[in-house]
Each structure stands twice: as C-alpha cells, then as structure tokens.
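Hey, resending since the last one bounced:
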Amino acid sequence: MRRTRLARLGGVAAVAAIAVTGWLAPAWGQTARPAAADGMSPATATSLAGQLAAARQATAKYATNLGRAKADGYFIITKMMPNMGYHFLNPNISGFSVTKPPILVYEHRGSTWQLGALEWVFTSMPKSVPLPNATFGSFPAACHYADGTFIPDKTAATCPKTAPVSHAKFTFWHPDLITMHVWIWYPNPAGLYSSTNPDVAPFNKG
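The structure tokens again:
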C-alpha cells in the first residue's frame, strides 16, 4: 500500500494499515493465496486494518499476561515450535471471529511471556477467506499432552495415554488441520499470515 493510499485512511484503521504495509509479503511455505498489500483496493485495506485493530483491542489483555489467558481458558498445547512459539488453546472457542482467536502464540524468555500471533484452525480449507489475502498453513493429526508435548497420530484410538518421554497426561487429539496465523503482536517480515516468523528465532531454545 503506497503512502498516498494511507493518507485516505483515518483513526485507528490508519495505524493498523501502516503495520499491514510491511507484513503482507508472500509468506514461506504457505498453501494458498499469497498476500500482496499493493493488490488491495483502498476499501479492502481499510476493512482489514479495522479487523486487525479490533483483534488487537480484544487480545491486548493477553499481550504480556499469560496468566490472564490461562484464567480465561487457554492451556498449553505445544512447547516452543521453532520460529513460531508456544501455542495455547481455548477449547471453548469455535468458528471464526476476529476478536476471539482459539489459539494464542507466545514467545518466552525468562519469566516474560509476549504474545506474538493469533491463530485459527479449520478441519478443511475455508470456502471463503476469513481475512483479506489470507494464506494458510497446516498441522498434522496429533495427540496432545498436558505439558505441551505432542506426537503425530492419525487416529485418537492409538494415542498413548501418557506422553512417551515426559509421561504427561493425554489431553486431546485432533485431525489434520488447516491453520491461519495472524502476527499482529510481533511484526513478521515473512508476512502477516506466515506460519513462521524469522524474527522470533532468538526464542527457539525456549
């Protein structure tokens, strides 16, 4: 989006649109719909900026407060995934609402937790794009455990009752998933919707 277009955007939407400009590059390893900010109409860019602003406002309480997220029902489902983060799921959230992400992706250092991305998951490719120019990743069917460990498994029936290494309690299984990350709390040079973010590499060791 060029500076002349940004001049037509107002208020909070303009602030969000500035961030969008730097993030809507084609993302690594995405499966569909490469993002390109310059290909958006002013109306679409304004709509996306407004949606991102709403998502930030709704999740600001979690930005540096993992305890608040846990109190609201989010629990760990992965430990640090390289160039992503720790994933926390709220099983009470379903469907798509930009202000209610089912998964929060955090970066962790010492005692500090920083929200990086919001994530939505789907059991099949959405028939309509949830957000303008969205791209998608994938996550294989897996068994998950209470300490955030998981193992790929095509069926729930064959999930071990405890994690093979840590012996943590089994929590849930999910089928193959389509994923949509939105990096609105940690800028991502790979793209707003990229599954991975090279700038969080320093956190990879957890």
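The two ends are 35 Å apart (CA to CA).

Sorry for the duplicate.
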